[in-house]
Amino acid sequence: xxxxxxxxxxxxxxxxxxxxxxxxxxxxxxxxxxxxxxxxxxxxxxxxxxxxxxxxxxxxxxxxxxxxxxxxxxxxxxxxxxxxxxxxxxxxxxxxxxxxxxxxxxxxxxxxxxxxxxxxxxxxxxxxxxxxxxxxxxxxxxxxxxxxxxxxxxxxxxxxxxxxxxxxxxxxxxxxxxxxxxxxxxxxxxxxxxxxxxxxxxxxxxxxxxxxxxxxxxxxxxxxxxxxxxxxxxxxxxxxxxxxxxxxxxxxxxxxxxxxxxxxxxxxxxxxxxxxxxxxxxxxxxxxxxxxxxxxxxxxxxxxxxxxxxxxxxxxxxxxxxxxxxxxxxxxxxxxxxx
Amino acid sequence: xxxxxxxxxxxxxxxxxxxxxxxxxxxxxxxxxxxxxxxxxxxxxxxxxxxxxxxxxxxxxxxxxxxxxxxxxxxxxxxxxxxxxxxxxxxxxxxxxxxxxxxxxxxxxxxxxxxxxxxxxxxxxxxxxxxxxxxxxxxxxxxxxxxxxxx
Lengths: 339, 151
Prior knowledge:
Radius of gyration of chain B: 21 Å
Helix content of chain A: 40-55%
Low-confidence stretches of chain A: none
Largest interface: A-B, 59 and 46 residues
Shape of chain A: globular
Largest sheet of chain A: 7 strands, antiparallel
Number of strands of chain A: 9
Strand content of chain B: 5-15%
Structural class of chain A: alpha+beta
Radius of gyration of chain A: 21 Å
Mean pLDDT of chain B: 89
Largest sheet of chain B: 2 strands, antiparallel
Low-confidence stretches of chain B: 139-151
Oligomer: heterodimer
Order of helices and strands of chain A: EHHEEHEHEEEEHEHHHHHH
Structural class of chain B: mainly alpha
């Protein structure tokens, strides 16, 4: 067997799912950037779910659940995406090899933990990572364009198989996707306006009793209340709780400020595509919102470092200001119309 | 955030990697900027990593005193907890809790041990043994990173 190396233009991205879909679409000649994919999928969100615990800490997310972005973007742009999962691991690996032999770039959903090229401190049991395989060496190693890495990487077959078939929450079951066909031309304009409207609608909360208070700006305020009430808990838990929020916002490939900067980037790009100057204005406003989230992260970490001048109420108040800014931003986004 | 303000703090948690952050240039246009780390973020990461390490070290000490089974140590060392291990092994949490008891663990069938071995990528010898106290507690991470909080 000889090496299979398919042409690929590796582009480092902030986030795995948007990065993979952008790379795959570009390889087929459809120029969709990472922020554009993120925006079109209306992926910006806020979720605080204390019922779902990960390592003893509540689930906090700044975007829609995994798989949403790839699915939504392909559906909207009428991209023919074939996606399959496997109950048999050997068949799953064989199907990957077959696609590579046919000359197709292959997107995979994998666990983060079992990919040996990840830095030790960033490895955790999360099963919804995405990457692109662009070849295989004669020795049997897979050649991978992992969007969150600066350079191309290589992974032994055994490790990749383990990563694809790791069990547990969000298990990938070997999920593999290949783009079969893309439309020759796409007018992004109507999709941009529809996506912004949908994002804005979700930014307040969900019109569902009780659980609605855990989404959007309402969810941010609920989290702020929780932070204020933490002074009844042990100092160590307070620190881990706040640290968890900061990690979800910054560490887990968000492009900074829990995807807010990426969304702002989508808006500036949309302003260029549509020629609508109002989009540039809301982009600037979104940047301000993102900056405030970064200040919140700093404040939270200052508290963790036991700087006396920062209290839990200070941290909570900063978070409330994030919620209020997002509500104002929502009003502006709803005013955006296709002229 | 302006591109000039994108932190380049060479965080040890990045282990030489860079991340892409979105920032604006002076004309308000967005671009991707590679960052070597942000002190604020890596402090939060380090806190979580240290907490896990502490729990792992404690489990190892308890395993040496025969208060918990080697499974308790390996579970934490490999970043699992009761919830995630239950989801991957399809054992119930109460079953895993029982297996953390050294007496019960010692009598586990080969078949049950094999389930743990499979999801944890360990041999049965590795699963049923623990390193000596003098050895490093977490073999895969030899780099003992200094605390980032330099106060």
